[in-house]
């Protein structure tokens, strides 16, 4: 299954490497460098399957966690989008917070981009997002169909 993926990574070499890898896998990929660019893209997109976020979007700032802020925003605004956090130097504490507080799908170091484990996690995230989005659509269709039948005076359970 091919997915719609957003990469948010400030370092151009890592961003280009990851974008090329995912495009070769057949995914539709948008890659941006800043929190502001990511927010603008997310405003326009409702069917994003996966966001891959660098924890620290300004490498020179030690306490910068713009990626974590964006993870929280995606978690609140785009419930079907899965998020994989990436880092060049993340701590276990940050990793735990990403999972527990903001429901990150997975967490990788940048050196693992070309691994089979990373590719498998991307595929699982895309499939999970698509499956959940489709289940929600199916549920809404069933609800609306029951309502239509009810309006027509028919039992929604014995049409």
Write a concise keyword list for the protein shown above:
alpha/beta; single chain; 16% strand; 159 residues; Rossmann fold; elongated; five-stranded parallel beta sheet
What does this structure look like?
This protein is an alpha/beta fold. It has one domain (4-151): Rossmann fold (3-Layer(aba) Sandwich). It has five helices and five strands. It has helices spanning 12-24, 35-44, 66-77, 92-100, 116-151; strands at 4-8, 28-32, 50-54, 82-87, 106-109. It has a five-stranded parallel beta sheet with strand order 2-1-3-4-5, sandwiched between helices. α2 packs parallel to α3. The two termini are 36 Å apart.
Residue fraction in strands: 15-25%
How many domains? The number is: 1
State the shape: elongated
Name the strands of the widest sheet in spatial order: 2-1-3-4-5
Spell out the CATH superfamily. Response regulator
| Radius of gyration, in angstroms, nearest whole number | 18 Å
**Unreliable residue stretches:** none
The total count of strands amounts to 5
User: What is the CATH level 1 assignment?
Assistant: Alpha Beta
Helix and strand element order = EHEHEHEHEH
Brief characterization of the structure:
The chain has 159 residues and is α/β, with parallel strands linked by helices.
Write the layout of secondary structure elements.
Layout: E1 4-8, H1 12-24, E2 28-32, H2 35-44, E3 50-54, H3 66-77, E4 82-87, H4 92-100, E5 106-109, H5 116-151
Parallel strand pairs: 1-2, 1-3, 3-4, 4-5
